[in-house]
Amino acid sequence: MIKINPDITFIKRVKKESGSDLKTCMQCGNCTVVCSLSADDNLFPRKEMIWAAWGLKEKLYENTSIWSCHQCGDCNIHCPRGVKPGNIIAALRSLTIEHYALPSFLARWMKKPIFLPLFLSVPIILIHLLLILNHTLTNTAIPVNYAEFFPHKLLNSFFSTIVIILLIAMFFSLRKFFKTIKKSLPENEIKNSFILSLTMTIKEIFSHQRFAKCESDKSRQLSHLLVFYGFISLILVTLYAIVAVFFGQYPMPFTHPVKLFSNVAGLAILTGLILMLINRIRLLKTSLKSTFSDWSFLISLIFLVSTGFLTEYARLLNIHFAYYWYLFHLIIMWYVVLFFPYSKFAHFAYRFMAILLKKRHTHTHLMS
Predict the structure, then answer these.
(1) String of b and e for 88-114 (b: at least 16 CB within 10 Å)?
(2) CA 65 → CA 31, 181, 252, 306, 311, distances in Å?
(3) 52, 88 in Cβ contact below 8 A?
(4) Could you tell me the pTM of the whole model?
(5) Can you list the domains of the chain with their CATH numbers?
(6) pLDDT tens, residue by residue, 293-350
């Protein structure tokens, strides 16, 4: 006999975050049939709909299938009862991140608009405190010289320390997630080596090939690729800039190859984000729900890239307001990076882990 212990609170949270009534689902299986990402060895989301309706949160927290969904909205469009399975799967991913996050309350607070001022106040206070301690808060002379206003070495050192602490917290969260899923998958059914599974996972992530399989919206592949590769490029540029600061080779001239490369990457990200924004607004018509987390994540990234461009060109034009654009840019950057383990940014890490474990238990010929 299998004992079922439904969690009523969990059911209510799924219903609230998804905006869907789980009781309306009649288990017709249409969502699984129309999903082009659902495979013979990984049928979803019908079983996830059953588990969610029954409040079997532990089954869902160790489930890899919810990370296979790319929320294209196909199942929402074809659901005869308007249950919106895609919204429910998105809510389950959000609740899974909250479950594994350390501390979990930060992931829960990130989803509530009321806490946005609190999260923004953290970088505002920290950056202003460093400026005051460095006695550079009023150094806004023309021509613009950011180094006179911002203590880059102090800011980078402090920022890097906090990021390392967050990465440690993220590591333990992902380790718990990894161990839980691994325990749920039969050890004697491993089909591929770890190296092969890792190679296939990296290939899938870097190609974003599954986005192209979504019938209702294949265009999302382009926007996600632009943002994905744009951010990888900017991370490399940022690491270069941090090293350049310590060797006294910063700021770089506008014609510097790294500077030109960063501008191309920034344009790619901004283009991708605008396409995502347009697409999200368009998909609202298909009942695909956008949560506060979705909007805040997308808008904060648009602000981050836009203020980056404004900061750069304001310096070139020697506009006095350039210092404040730079301050605003740093605040947004710290907000995005410092809370990434608890925001939608964390989806990337959890999805990577889930796909990796799933590929270890799937025949290679089914991975195409």
Answers:
(1) bbbbbbbbbbbbbbbeeebbbbbbeee
(2) 13, 11, 46, 35, 42
(3) yes
(4) 0.87
(5) 8-100 (no CATH), 104-366 (1.20.950)
(6) 989 999 999 999 999 999 888 888 888 788 888 889 999 999 999 999 999 889 989 9
